[in-house]
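Students often ask why we bother predicting the structure of a whole assembly rather than each chain alone. The short answer is interfaces. A chain on its own may look different once its partners are present, and contacts between molecules only exist in the joint model. In this exercise we take four input lines together and write out one structure for the complete complex. Read the inputs first and try to guess which parts will touch.
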Amino acid sequence: MEDRIRSSFAKQSMMQTLGAEVESVAAGEVVITAPILPGSRQQHDVAHAALSFAIGDTAAGYAALTVMPEDCEVMTAEMKINLLAPGAGEHLRATGKVIKPGRRLVIVTAEVHAVTGHEEKLVAILQGTMVPVTA
Amino acid sequence: MEDRIRSSFAKQSMMQTLGAEVESVAAGEVVITAPILPGSRQQHDVAHAALSFAIGDTAAGYAALTVMPEDCEVMTAEMKINLLAPGAGEHLRATGKVIKPGRRLVIVTAEVHAVTGHEEKLVAILQGTMVPVTA
Amino acid sequence: MEDRIRSSFAKQSMMQTLGAEVESVAAGEVVITAPILPGSRQQHDVAHAALSFAIGDTAAGYAALTVMPEDCEVMTAEMKINLLAPGAGEHLRATGKVIKPGRRLVIVTAEVHAVTGHEEKLVAILQGTMVPVTA
Amino acid sequence: MEDRIRSSFAKQSMMQTLGAEVESVAAGEVVITAPILPGSRQQHDVAHAALSFAIGDTAAGYAALTVMPEDCEVMTAEMKINLLAPGAGEHLRATGKVIKPGRRLVIVTAEVHAVTGHEEKLVAILQGTMVPVTA
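Now the answer. The structure tokens for the assembled complex follow.
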């Protein structure tokens, strides 16, 4: 499972552009991290909302993939993000979780934290729907 | 107004990373385009959902800025995206609109189209809330 | 089609509790109205958010049903509502529309207006996903 | 705090129409229950989505009120609901929680369970934004 996710992740050029990495893969839960690169910022020099969205959505999508049949890929049907605090820190970490698996729809959430040393701050929460597509 | 938006946009390094440009600025409506760069893709080689989110959210945010007092900046409080079709084409174009201005909250929507020659396909719709912040 | 929707609507006891009625049915667009009954209010005596949600969601769902095969029923997978203004007036009117039909997912929006005489005020917008279920 | 919430709740006629009750109030968390009344159903005779929305939104709103100054009331700015399973059972129970308090925006979530005897099934999750309004 982890190989399959790391291999799919490696094909997402957007993840490389953002410097994102898969930190861990477990059944129903995937963690993705990303530095706040000089090229990933908004006008106040903190992480762009799209960075939190990108890694939150991707972590949630791969969490969904862990509960889908082997021959499936996953696609985001819809995703909602609430931004709680500026994305400032050493890096961002997104934890995606499956709330409800299903044959046609998988309901997921993600939390994005800004990490500085041992401190973590919740900066965004996401809630959405993933759909399986035959690869 | 257009100068103010173009100047703020130029400070968003994420927009440069994604190759995005401001196409037009009008009261309550801003259009942003982006190519589907080799580095902006998901595993099936079409635009990553985060690209549609990034330009849709930014177009909606600047649309909101056009109805705010001059000394304000805008921040996304929350945004929801429904993805309708793969982001395949020559480039993406996001049209952000103000649905309801307000002193504390500005309600916005955005549509993202994939454009190929004279053809356009709706690939994502967004609905969210922007808040003014004192610059 | 209209008969099918009116017959399904009649079986939704919540719609009767709220006094809601089907105003019109067209391909991809359904309009539902509801009075702001004494029993449908929040603590400031205007319409409860759940009333706008109820008729907006139902109008969107039946709009989706107009583009589904005949033997299907429709179910809400997810729905987001932004509330723009207090629901005050003689009645509320929800217009549900199909944005993108599909075999597995139908993307919809709805607008809810508060109506007083000839005046209309937009009080809520909704964006969501309907799924067909075999009846 | 609990008195203030119970008193506000008693003024929401929609809550009485739906038979809803406040089960518990704690700092940042409020629980509301409702029977699945004969008049609260959709066409398949289970709870209408609007019932889950109504009590989930209200539980989240009062959870937000517990972290606001005393002279405030709370209003829903936006709310998203994902429906996970049919609302079938003896009653529904919504648990609303504050994720991030704030002077201008309070970010909240809610879970709605269908309860039958000692069994509970998660039927809906909500994520949204509450705003304080001066009473």
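Check your guess against this: The longest helix of chain B spans residues 49-65.
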